[in-house]
Amino acid sequence: MKKRMFCVYQRAFKKVSKAFWWAESKWQQVHKKPSIFIKIKQWIKKAKKKILYYKKSLRNLFYFK
What we know:
There is one protein chain. This protein is mainly alpha-helical and 65 residues long. It has 2 domains: 1-32; 34-64. 89% of the residues lie in helices and 0% in strands. It contains 2 helices and no strands. Helix 1 (2-30) packs antiparallel against helix 2 (35-63). The longest helix has 29 residues, at 2-30. The two termini are 16 Å apart.
């Protein structure tokens, strides 16, 4: 159950980050880099680290019992 929920979260996160990178590239063509994008970038990096951390801990839970 936990693993399936995690996979759903991971897929959603990938879609969100892809959409963000696309929006940022479009925005940069029109404007200069606003601070909100920098904040969102930092948030995405943190989320990626968390996902990697959970991936490792889930792997330990499910494969090394």
